[in-house]
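Example record used in the benchmark description.
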Amino acid sequence: MTPFFNIDERIEKASNEALKKCSKQFEKIERITEYNQLKVQSAFIEYGISESHFAPSTGYGYGDRGREVLDKVWARVFGAEDALVRHNFTCGTHTLATALFGVLRPGDKMLCVTGTPYDTIHNVIGISGSGMGSLKDFGVEYAEVPLKDERLDYEAIENAIDDTVTMVYIQRSRGYELRPSLLIDEIEKVVKIAKAKKPDVIVMVDNCYGEFVQTKEPTEVGADLIAGSLIKNAGGGIAQTGGYIAGRSDLVEKCAYRLTTPGLGKEVGATLGLNRELFMGLFHAPHAVGEALKSAVYISALFNSFGYDTTPAYDAERGDIVQSLGLENPDSLVAFCQGVQSGSPIDSFLSPEPWDMPGYDSKVVMAAGAFTLGSTIELSADAPIREPYYAWIQGGLNFHSAKICAMLAAQKMLERGLLK
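Model output (structure tokens):
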């Protein structure tokens, strides 16, 4: 490493020790990666994917074979009846909003059972930004079940579900919270509680950051609808933009009507030659997620050895690719992110500073030197400048690149006298 990067020998020694600690977790990740890769590969074979499915369409996009088969492959991989996979989705929040507006109607009630959801969805629901065309503005009621000791409160969830609840909403990943991300078994338990209490209730899961982390997806354990971004796990670092919705065919159809227009739905939408990268991104996704998981486990082990709180612990079971790191003060947060940026393949010369990022209620510092702008399957680190001063790290297209970024982050902190 020393011919290319100037790393203090104490950090290199700590890195070597962290790698030894991670060996069993890495073996487990490899097994999950292989299972998911074979699941994806079998779906490609089942539907006979060929060069012809990559052909571009223009205008209305009628009869786009690639687009139609991509939906089928996606549904097969995710254990769903149908799927809607499009480059037209601008981001994960847009995809989630399309799903919510697609299936909820005035007078319906949305119940979030994982506490207050991620910041950027607040305006969609109407928690903030009233008058902006939110669900609240359209007469959709919202309620939530707080977490109990940072865990799902199953008893409170059961009590909250009644005849007025149309949708039970689950956020799988933690957002800017320190609670653990949800495991598939926990999601399945919520589904069973919800369906026992009200069989026709819609269970929707924000699946961002969770795809391919375990061997099952929420739709395989009873969730009616899931949604996510293609510049996170599911696009494998290859998709340049887009999102997906998968689940019950009737619900997916309603979402398609929201994305395009009633009566047309999935039948229109030119792919403009982007089918190839969406297919390729899905094919590559299990491996990319495996590399991201290794990166998260390693960062947890390394910084825990320096004396910092890391959530999850390096040897914990994981439900997403996100790693939280308690850096204790604003200066350490900024130094850490600047160190990560300095090792990024793109924009390494930039030095991130806290700023008022749209959709967030406090200043945010973000390291994101990615080939695709905003991609969080590529290594990124961001932190709201607020107590308790945690950084959230996710991604890593290949482990070795993420590893040196983590070491450079420690080096930057050391140089400023901030590393414990």
